[in-house]
Amino acid sequence: MRNGTLVITDSSITAVYAAGEEPDNIDILSENQTSPEVIDVTDKIITPGFIDTHRHGWQTVYRTLGSNVSLWEYLGRYSLYSSEGRFTPDVVYISQLAGLYEALNAGVTTILDHTHHTWSNETSKAGLRASIDSGARVVWAYAFQDLQNYTIDEQISNFKDIANEAIFNGTPTTLGIAYDAFYSDKADLIVPLTREYNISALTTHFMAGPWDSGNDPELLDRLDLLNTSVSVVISHGSYVSVKQYELLRRTNQYISITPESEMHYGHLHPTSHLALEQASLGVDAHFTFSTDILTQARMWLQRVRAIFYATPSDAWQISINNPMSVKQAFYLATRSGGLALRRPDLGIIAPGAEADLVVWDGTSPALLGWVDPVAAIILHGSVADIEHVLVDGRFVKRNHTLTTPNYQAVKKRFLKSARIQDVMINTPLPISKQGEKSTFGAPLEYAPVADVERGNGTGYGPNWLGL
Ligand SMILES: *[C@@H]1O[C@H](CO)[C@@H](O)[C@H](O)[C@H]1NC(C)=O
Ligand SMILES: *[C@@H]1O[C@H](CO)[C@@H](O)[C@H](O)[C@H]1NC(C)=O
Ligand SMILES: *[C@@H]1O[C@H](CO)[C@@H](O)[C@H](O)[C@H]1NC(C)=O
Ligand SMILES: *[C@@H]1O[C@H](CO)[C@@H](O)[C@H](O)[C@H]1NC(C)=O
Ligand SMILES: *[C@@H]1O[C@H](CO)[C@@H](O)[C@H](O)[C@H]1NC(C)=O
Ligand SMILES: *[C@@H]1O[C@H](CO)[C@@H](O)[C@H](O)[C@H]1NC(C)=O
Ligand SMILES: *[C@@H]1O[C@H](CO)[C@@H](O)[C@H](O)[C@H]1NC(C)=O
Ligand SMILES: *[C@@H]1O[C@H](CO)[C@@H](O)[C@H](O)[C@H]1NC(C)=O
Ligand SMILES: *[C@@H]1O[C@H](CO)[C@@H](O)[C@H](O)[C@H]1NC(C)=O
Ligand SMILES: [Zn+2]
């Protein structure tokens, strides 16, 4: 729609008018308002906010530390287990908050956070407080985990405390549950909580193929977790099978594809392009790479195109058509995330939807001359083009600037906390032997390495030609 008018009342979109159809007087006003505040969006593009269905916000302080590690190495140095005992509640708070500001700045308005910073009563509350303070729409999924110094029983008391305290009321943040050990006997303690409490989503990591992480859809179904009204988001879903996809399709549950993470860390996604009706997008370990869902959508679009093009091309044929449209990528980044969370009022622009919006400068160097707004955003746009961001009808970014008055102070506090980086850099990576069995079951092996420097002994990859 070009030159339209969009009306927001309180936290919702209440009307959308095509050019020339808007009434002379907008009479749907918020409480205490006598006339609407009019925001001129001439030459702008308005889209729904992006939806990220998988992230670990607490990891922001590790920024750039994972630039060349594999998932196997990550687990030995940056995982929730290697981080237990190293984060004060204060560091959790500021790391989570700085990460959420980064996401909001990038137009990501809804985030399903698999928290796993729940190492103590205090660290969990700090991460929750930061989520609420950020102004983002966070589904804060309490992670139950097998820790050294914090038992599952203590975690359950903490969870119940948080669920009963009603600290969420009046904020866009809601409570979820994250759990990665449905195969263990402790699952009996967690499964009932998903029914007893009014949670917004249940989420779990699942990868098949060599990973065999457990938490497969069949197991979740046997535990009666899939065919219910609660949203279940299965993160990655690497190597998802036909049978598993069918189960998700029938119960209308989703996998969260995290394209950049799965390529960077190596969990991969060889079948995910076949499961797109039940898929949304996520970022995952944002300390390592892009935090914006736009980049994820663009990477995944081109990845899927490459995979589908290979079908004719590998048979020495030339494809006539392009296998995936920009609109499909746009839906994945917006509407599909809402559907994964069972929130059809998120990720769309329509009367009745939440007012979570991104306003793009349609005259920026990158977008100037656009004809198709979806193509403009998906293939040409970047965070630099985002002028305003609204969550729940409130500006969180306005005129290219985060609206929080404390951002400078947050930055300072964050930089102090980032001293934890020295500790992590000096933590040895796991000692791994080729051929040895990994904790996932499959053996360990070296991947070939790339080397862009000519000559022998440049310190990284092989000299393939011996020249
Ligand atoms: C939108 O507004 C511009 C500037 O007023 C005008 O040139 C253009 O024709 C309009 N387009 C549509 C589709 O109404
Ligand atoms: C409207 O005004 C009343 C009385 O001043 C106040 O209590 C209420 O919070 C206001 N509502 C909003 C949405 O600002
Ligand atoms: C990445 O790998 C290169 C080459 O091994 C190394 O010099 C660099 O320190 C690594 N960077 C990080 C952040 O680990
Ligand atoms: C667990 O507690 C013990 C005893 O206080 C301490 O030595 C250990 O470092 C703690 N472990 C972690 C991961 O915090
Ligand atoms: C953690 O919170 C629970 C629930 O309020 C409480 O029972 C427990 O004593 C707390 N643990 C610590 C170590 O403070
Ligand atoms: C459940 O939580 C949602 C927000 O996630 C809230 O809108 C709804 O009123 C809650 N329902 C009950 C029965 O508490
Ligand atoms: C889900 O449950 C409904 C009844 O509540 C049943 O009719 C349907 O067959 C079930 N679907 C699956 C896939 O189990
Ligand atoms: C952005 O800044 C300009 C220039 O100061 C101002 O006219 C405009 O109202 C601002 N827009 C919003 C949405 O605040
Ligand atoms: C490259 O280095 C390896 C050992 O580091 C050596 O065996 C080989 O001869 C070298 N090749 C050339 C072309 O110098
Ligand atoms: Zn993850």
UniProtKB/TrEMBL annotation:
Q: Does the keyword Hydrolase apply?
A: yes
* Alphabetized Pfam families for the sequence: Amidohydro_1 (PF01979)
Q: Which domain of life is it from?
A: Eukaryota
Reported cofactor(s): Zn(2+)
What does the UniProt keyword field contain? Hydrolase, Metal-binding, Zinc
Q: Where is the Amidohydrolase-related domain?
A: 45-396
Tell whether Hydrolase is among the UniProt keywords.
Answer: yes
User: What InterPro entries is this protein classified in?
Assistant: Amidohydro-rel, Metal-dep_hydrolase_composite, Metal_Hydrolase, Metallo-dep_hydrolases
Q: What is this protein called?
A: Amidohydrolase-related domain-containing protein
What organism does this protein naturally occur in? Answer: Neonectria punicea
The lineage, from the top, is:
Eukaryota, Fungi, Dikarya, Ascomycota, Pezizomycotina
